[in-house]
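Dear support,

We are seeing what looks like truncated structure output for some complexes. This example has four components. We would appreciate it if you could run it in full and send us the complete token output so we can diff it against ours.
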Amino acid sequence: PHPRPPQPVYENVVPPARRRGRPKSKAPENEQKIEIENGQSEVGKGEISQGHHKESTTGPTKGIKRARKPHGSIEGDAANNCRYDSSLGLLTKKFINLLKGAEDGTLDLNKAVEILEVQKRRIYDITNVLEGVDLIEKGLKNTIRWKGFDMLLPKEVELQTSALKEELDSSHDKESRLDEEIREAQEKLLALKLNKDKKKWLYLSKEDICKIPHLQVRKFLASCLFLLPVITKGISTIAPLIAGIHSYCNTCSSRNLC
Amino acid sequence: PHPRPPQPVYENVVPPARRRGRPKSKAPENEQKIEIENGQSEVGKGEISQGHHKESTTGPTKGIKRARKPHGSIEGDAANNCRYDSSLGLLTKKFINLLKGAEDGTLDLNKAVEILEVQKRRIYDITNVLEGVDLIEKGLKNTIRWKGFDMLLPKEVELQTSALKEELDSSHDKESRLDEEIREAQEKLLALKLNKDKKKWLYLSKEDICKIPHLQVRKFLASCLFLLPVITKGISTIAPLIAGIHSYCNTCSSRNLC
DNA sequence: ACCCATTTCGCGCTTCCA
DNA sequence: TGGAAGCGCGAAATGGGT
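Here is the complete output from our reference environment:
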């Protein structure tokens, strides 16, 4: 299925039994260098305009991505600039995002490959590192699971934590506000009580009563001594009333009714 | 559906004189050297003999060929190297460890290269990903700094977070307890008020008063009509008192004192 | 223009699974 | 046992100095 572009056709094979690279190793005995000079041998490969079918997971996926970043790049404005955003760092972010998207924290790597439009190989680079840091866990076949709970982006934890702290604070002062209210309510209750107690003194004295002329009335009022605190209805203070009674008593007294 | 080219049998192919991967380039001009190491390249943990010359940084470092991963491998338990530990996942762990070691969280990548005995290239794989996840931050030249605080261990964050949540909870129900207290206090206040209102009806009627024999007393009591709600002192209900007054009135009445 | 740290990219081997 | 998954590895491209 996958056309695999022009495939250059190697014309050089290196004698087996040996690897290449590796200049500095410490075991120099027996190493040979073969220098190969190449002339032009152009790489076929022109442009790979393949409209990437989703096929092959591992194989070469897209060919290109960013347009060449020709030096000048007249337009050079928007954030499309080369190299920078093209890889791992950014890819990792995208990957993480994908991962956050999928609830149950499981992600299918092939899906990721499709969505992110990258070679599977790159995904492995990411998953390997993330696994090394225990943020991820390899699931069966082609999938990984997000471990390491929420704590992912420090930013997020920070946000979450500070949100929690804020709520705590608000709860705390809501609490103290309530404390205040309670205090006030109890104060009112006390004041009410005191008020009642004060009125206790607004009564007729024994002498006052004695000034009342008729015996029965005196007796009656005496029994009314129990009626101590008096509450008025419509009249804000009882003082005038008491005064009235005193006045009455005096009248009786002056008329010798006692 | 991955075609994956028929990979000829050749066991060692070297894209000769031409870059193999990287098809894109257009400038194949210069020559390249290919050093071939032959022999067995032993598994043993090559020494990093890079005693001098900075060369090492980028260049190929170790060459480790993994030992065969023999099927059975009786002991097959402990550190059976093979491919497994040779890479990224493990390397990442080691790297993180190094990072945790260095206080001030800064690590020199070249140091890491030496210590971990790996190619710089591998370190980049790690730093790129970690940076993508915001656990790391690139410092100037060859260094990175550990960001993302302690939160690395999910355990810790979890603990901190749950502690916070617990406090929040306790605050919340402390609050609701206070709410309850307030409610009760207000209830009491209301009850007190209602109580007062009820007592409003415990008064002597106009007729009651008219039954009182003597004019002055009648006048006096009439003026006392204002004293409507009556509060008792020591006596829980005023009913008996009212009854007493009625009784008194009746007595007067029966004696024709009216 | 050259140096070099960094990063891109993908070949080909290893390992897994049906 | 064959194909797919997984990934070591390093050449080469890139871009920032200077």
